[in-house]
Structures are given as C-alpha cells and as structure tokens.
Amino acid sequence: MSKSASFFTKNVIDVLVHTYSRGSISNEAFERRLDKVIEMTSHQAMMDQIADLDATPNEDTLTYALENIN
C-alpha cells in the first residue's frame, strides 16, 4: 500500500473512530464498517462506508479522494 493510500485509509478509520466515540454508531456497526475498510482497496468503497456519518475526513483526505477516485 502506498504512503498516500495508507494515509487515506487511516483518515477514513479516524472518522469511524470519532463517530463511534460520540455514540453515533453502535459497536456492531463500527466493527462491521472497520472490517470492510481494512479489507478494501477501492477508495470510493471506503468513502462509501463513511458517507452517511456526520464526521468528515480531514481536508487532505478529501483532496486525495477527489484527485484519485474515478
């Protein structure tokens, strides 16, 4: 995994952790989404896992997504 892809994955996971820590998603939902993100290679699929959450990835992650997701 490239450094930028690893950074992207980490930030998607950070959104999940932040949302879970606020109690916005259940433990089961957090674990299910986290497992999917860890296994995924598609950035779009990762973004889909957090698209419905209130927290958003940081600006660098969003910029990376815009530049690299087809």
| Overall strand count | 0
Shape: globular
Number of helices: 4
Give me the secondary-structure category. Answer: mainly alpha
- Give a quick account of the main beta sheet: strands, pairing sense, barrel closure: none
Q: Level of helix content?
A: over 70%
Q: Calculate Rg over CA atoms.
A: 11 Å
In short:
The protein has 70 residues and is mostly helical.
Tell me what you see in this structure.
The protein has four helices and no strands. The protein has helices at residues 3-21, 27-39, 43-50, 59-68. The radius of gyration is 11 Å and the shape is globular. The mean pLDDT is 83.
Primary descriptors:
71% helix, mainly alpha, 70 residues, single chain, 4 helices
What is the strand and helix layout of this fold?
Elements: H1 3-21, H2 27-39, H3 43-50, H4 59-68
Helix pairs in contact: 1-2, 1-3, 1-4
